[in-house]
Design brief:
This is GntR family transcriptional regulator. The chain has 10 helices and 5 strands; from the N terminus they run ααβββααββαααααα. With 254 residues, it is mainly alpha-helical.
């Protein structure tokens, strides 16, 4: 099965090519992904404000039937199919149907935001081969998997950023985190503490000391009293300005 993702603008639903014919099941599924909210919001419904979470949408069987050009029975059977397969959950009353896309973040988020790279290649040079593209795609797929592991573990933005800081530190000391190592680290982190604030400190301790693994908090280490000689930093040629990671605040790293 193909992995990775592409950006798809919601404006595609205004194109006649999207709506002129009877929808296929695959098209109806993508249509649901495009219709649900990309962030939490309150909407006016039936004279009052209703909170609608990220990945949810207030709809109706009638509206979906007309949009997809299906019968109401076929529309309901399709929603039942998606729900039985764990792709959505939905609840219907006499006024509305609330659809929730399960694991919506998996479809919409990524751990890495790529920056455009300026090319300085001469016109006489040969173009890059598809091999480079394939290697880049494989790398992005691996990064997407790591993102999924992290998002399944926590929604805490500060903890997510600290996990990524830990992974960056491992890259810096030439010990990159594999998928298996990330799973193992997350499991151990959960065993050491269920408190996310303590989990952040445990990770900060390893980041500050350039440790490959994670360990219970120690007195005198970063994340406990903040005292450390920095000897390990010099060993790995880490700049003093990078000794203390920014584990809180700032933009969402995902």
């Amino acid at each position: 099965m193909a992995e990775g993702w592409i950006k798809l603008h919601r404006g595609i639903t205004n194109n006649p090519l999207w709506t002129q014919d009877v929808f296929s099941r695959g098209q109806a599924w993508v249509d649901l992904l495009l219709m649900v909210n990309h962030e939490d919001k309150k909407i006016l419904f039936d004279g009052g404000l209703v909170e609608c979470k990220r990945g949810e949408r207030i709809l109706s069987i009638r509206h979906l039937s007309e949009r997809w050009k299906w019968s109401r029975d076929k529309t309901k059977r399709f929603l039942d199919l998606l729900q039985s397969d764990g792709m959505i959950t939905y609840k219907t009353d006499h006024k509305k149907t609330i659809v929730n896309v399960v694991n919506y973040s998996v479809y919409q988020d990524t751990i890495i935001q790529e920056k455009p790279v300026k090319s300085h290649r001469k016109a006489t040079e040969k173009p890059l081969t598809d091999t480079n593209k394939n290697e880049k795609n494989e790398k992005n797929d691996k990064e997407d998997k790591k993102y999924i592991y992290i998002r399944e573990f926590t929604e805490n933005k500060d903890l997510i950023k600290t996990i990524i800081d830990f992974m960056k530190m491992r890259e810096k000391i030439k010990k990159p985190v594999t998928d298996r190592a990330l799973k193992s680290m997350i499991n151990k982190l959960n065993e050491l503490s269920k408190d996310e604030s303590i989990q952040i400190k445990i990770l900060e301790q390893s980041i500050f000391n350039c440790w490959q693994g994670i360990f219970p908090l120690k007195e005198g280490s970063y994340g406990s009293t903040g005292q450390n000689t920095g000897a390990d930093k010099k060993k790995y040629n880490v700049k003093p300005s990078e000794w203390k990671p920014k584990a809180t605040g700032g933009d969402d790293p995902i």
